[in-house]
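Exercise 3.2. Students should predict the tertiary structure of the chain below and write it as structure tokens, then compare their answer with the key that follows.

Predict this chain's 3D structure.
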Amino acid sequence: MSDALLKPKAAAPPMSQAPTRISLHLGHLPDKTDIKAPWPRSPGAVNPNNPPWPAYRGYHEFSFAHATMQSRLPTILGKAIEDAVRTLNNESDEERVIDLSQSIQRMEELMTDLSGNAKLRPIVDDGEADVVTWNREITKYFIGKDFMSAPWLFAEAYKYRRLHECFSVSKFWRGYDVFYRQKNDTFSRSHEAVFELAMRFAEPSGKSANESAESLRLMFMELTQVCLWGNSTDLSLLINMTEDQIRSLQSTGGDDLAATEQNILGNHMERLWDTVKSLRSKQGPRRIDFVLDNAGFELYCDCVYADFLIQSGLATEIRFHGKRYPWFVSDVTKKDWDWLPNNMVYGNLFPNASEVELEALRRLGRRWKQYEQEGKWIYEQHPFWCTGHTYWDLHSEAPDLFLHLSKSDLVIFKGDLNHRKLTYDCAAPASTPFDVAIGPMSSAAGAPKVASLRTIKSDVVVGLGPNGDALAKRLDEEEPGWKISGKYAVVLLSDGRPGEPVNFD
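Answer key:
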């Protein structure tokens, strides 16, 4: 064998000497093309895990979704556990104590899952009609997803459904509301704004139906703002707010309303007035629906608004849509709905109020109770409102509810959560027209006229007009956090396709 064959090979150069990057000169290639992302997705590609525009998810540290899933929801759940423990400590019956302690244990397990970013498990069969709906959606779209990786809206709704499960499988505590004390306490701390309105509307207005169109328009505009800014009192966001801060948010004087109108970034109030005004000439029932948001002071403002609509002849029937069980802390349930007028008439929430103020509140409450007795006000609670679905799915997942709403002359969606569900809670550009952002709730045959009254408290913002993207960019630079401050609002209207035959093919 030759020496050359026996000679060992030279050692390879160490990896540290290998080039880490190769640079090529691409001067003769075509310029890069500015390709826009294909948003929104085509309708066939939209599903709960893939909204029309990119979803907000808990792991997006730039978004309010991150702060909510990481901090706000555990804080809210912690206060809910404290409430249940407080109730437990006042119980004496052994069977009820054991039953409630087991519910608290389930809440603590939920806290572990939430804080540990566990995967979304199926809902336990607790006898609720929505179990199949929830588990079908989890199975189809969220297998392997956890609290942070699922779209924020679905993950947050799932947390509240799991919280309901903590009590729905119990023997004695199935209807227990861990947020009930908070909701009632916040209303009792709203005394200045409560009596500001009660003193103005205690007596029925005998002249409203015959007032000039302009005076009626001005009253409508002011009360629309009262109804809008009443949404500032959202317990899920104002967990640690002081009484003075609550009072500031609830200012209802005329000067305050004039100053805040400039903060309505998308303002369709004139169009909304034209829509409502046209109802006066309609033959037969004139129906307006409210899809409610928060209990307490906001519900009180909604009822003042609805009272005006009845007295002025703009509407003959108001339907209020609430939740079947405690939802997103302060959303209205039937118990909250009944509590408000009963405590206005019989309660003692305001020990420092004058007798004149209390009598004004009692008269207002008695009139509202009379509306219910006469069928002018009707409270409803469809199961769909407490699902993980957005309202893009209302037409397909709750056709009975869609058909029901299609018979309304106007459906007013109140608050931030309803707005998020209307718009699929995704990163649509701020210039996106409202009727585009709400999809089938505007485009489906028979879709009613839809209004959204919303103080902005989360990332999704649409309907700001052709210059909306520039406005949003300027606010991002000048006022970081403007999307969650509650300082700004929108009043948006979709004309829908009312009167057309509803089609579910």
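Discussion points: Confidence is low (pLDDT under 50) at residues 1-6, 233-243, 245-250. The first strand starts at residue 264 and ends at 267.
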